[in-house]
Write a structure and sequence with these properties.
The protein is mainly beta. The protein contains one helix and eight strands. The protein has one helix at residues 89-96; strands at residues 3-6, 12-17, 23-34, 47-53, 63-67, 72-74, 80-82, 86-88. Strands 1, 2, 3, 4, 5 and 8 form a six-stranded antiparallel β-sheet that branches. Strands 6-7 form a two-stranded antiparallel sheet. The longest helix has 8 residues, at 89-96.
C-alpha cells in the first residue's frame, strides 16, 4: 500500500497550443509519495510527485491517502499504467478492518 501525503491544495496549471493546433490545459497538484526501495525497506523521506487533476476537479484536501486499486491498469501494448485515484488513508483503514 503506497501512502501519498497532500501538504498543499494549490493547483498548478499549464496551458498552450498543442502540435495539432488545439488548446490544452494540464492541472496538477503537488503531493509526496512514501516509496519503498528495492531492498523492501521504506525510504527515509517521501518523494515529491505531481497528481494530474481532471478539468473541473477540486484539488485533493490536505492529508494522507492511498492509491485506489483501480489506479493501476494495463495500458497501450500491455505496459503498466498508473492513473492515480486517491482514497483517504483513514477511510481505507476502516474498510480493511
Amino acid at each position: 500500500m503506497l501512502k501519498i501525503t497532500n501538504a498543499s491544495t494549490a493547483v498548478h496549471t499549464k496551458s498552450g497550443i498543442g502540435k495539432n493546433q488545439r488548446p490544452y490545459e494540464i492541472r496538477e497538484q503537488a503531493a509526496w509519495i512514501h516509496l519503498v526501495g528495492e531492498d523492501g525497506k521504506p525510504h527515509p523521506y517521501p518523494t515529491q510527485m505531481m497528481l494530474m487533476l481532471e478539468k473541473q476537479a477540486a484539488p485533493y484536501a490536505l492529508g494522507d491517502y492511498i492509491l485506489h486499486p483501480s489506479s493501476i491498469q494495463s495500458g497501450r501494448f500491455g505496459s503498466l499504467q498508473i492513473k492515480p485515484l486517491l482514497v483517504p488513508h483513514q477511510q481505507a483503514v476502516k474498510a480493511a478492518a
